[in-house]
Write a structure and sequence with these properties.
The protein has eleven helices and eleven strands. It has about 325 residues and is an alpha+beta fold. Strands 1, 2, 3, 4, 5 and 6 form a six-stranded antiparallel sheet that branches. Helix 4 runs antiparallel to helix 6 and helix 9 packs antiparallel against helix 11. The termini are far apart.
């Protein structure tokens, strides 16, 4: 703890925030802190997980966020540059270098327990706005391998074979064989769908309801650290999967989300069944996270969901 406090002090000094108060908010991957400066101004500080060492990739995420902020169409965290006007602050620790970044604080409460039709409508508008910004401004960002390590299309699907083989004993032979079949099915589906400028671009890729904040009826979107290249349907599938956790509320909430999306742009599907490959993709990505996370708390918290995840993948593939 003493070491971490020292790291935070070193980081905050580089923003002219010495003496600020910090409060840990999350630690399943990156460590995220609420920072209160002496003048009362609030910030969010991300101390990247030790395995994240690619400075360029984090800078690209923050550059994209700056573009979204400048569009003034949707509320997202504004990156704060340090005293050297850098987006990333690098600090040396006993365990090696750590990357960090600071954002202006966005006030609000997670929408998870506040999913009224009005909030769902706003969430739909927010997602559609992000997708339209990607369509209109994402072209130049795709050059020179922008966020190349964050791929949510065919590349991610194929990569699942590596961890399935690595964790075959833990997964179980029967389940591992099934996952191999699921990957093959998904790759075939994605190749059939293809990647065009209309259906594929920069996506948030982690749109669970904890990453939407609401204040005074207005919705903001946070946590873009999984930003990458994928089908716009992947973002919608992520939300669809979470809505299905409360089936009694699903129809009304999903309808409101779609209506909000359509106020901004057309839905990227004509038939609900077009979501199925992306629901499988989201489920496989979830299993990837649980089986490969270096944080044991992930397995403890999410492990009980694994059987239902297998069952839902089977249902889609057999349907």
């Amino acid at each position: 703890m003493q070491n971490e406090e020292h790291i935070l002090l070193k980081i905050l000094e580089k923003y002219g925030l010495s003496g600020a108060k910090t409060q840990l908010l999350g630690s399943l991957w990156n460590r995220v802190y609420r920072v209160e400066a002496k003048n009362g101004r609030l910030y969010s500080l991300r101390l990247c997980a030790p395995v994240i060492q690619e400075k360029r990739s984090v800078e690209e995420e923050l550059a994209w966020l700056e573009l979204i902020v400048n569009q003034q169409q949707i509320s997202v965290p504004r990156p704060v540059r340090n005293q050297h006007q850098e987006l990333i602050t690098v600090v040396s620790t006993a365990e090696g270098t750590r990357l960090s970044c600071l954002f202006e604080w966005i006030e609000g409460e997670p929408t998870k327990n506040r999913l009224t039709p009005e909030i769902m409508h706003q969430i739909g508008r927010s997602v559609a706005t992000l997708h339209e910004i990607a369509r209109q401004h994402g072209g130049p960002f795709h050059e020179n391998g922008f966020r190349s390590r964050y791929q949510y299309g065919r590349c991610l699907a194929v990569s699942h074979r590596e961890w399935i083989a690595e964790h075959q004993v833990k997964i179980g032979t029967e389940n591992a064989t099934f996952l191999e079949r699921a990957v093959t099915w998904l790759v075939e589906q994605l190749e059939r769908i293809g990647e065009t400028s209309d259906n594929f671009g920069l996506i948030h890729a982690d749109l669970h309801f904890g990453n939407f904040l609401v204040r005074d009826g207005a919705v903001s979107v946070i946590d873009f650290d999984q930003l990458g290249n994928g089908h716009y349907l992947y973002d919608l599938a992520t939300l669809n999967v979470e809505l299905l956790n409360e089936p009694e509320e699903y129809v009304e909430r999903w309808h409101s989300l779609k209506a909000g999306y359509q106020q901004v742009t057309a839905l990227p599907f004509k038939d609900e069944r077009e979501l199925n490959p992306f629901i499988v993709a989201v489920k496989l990505a979830f299993l990837d996270w649980v089986y490969n996370s270096p944080n044991p708390r992930v397995n403890e918290q999410m492990g009980p969901l694994i059987p239902a995840t297998f069952a839902s993948i089977r249902e889609i593939m057999d349907g």
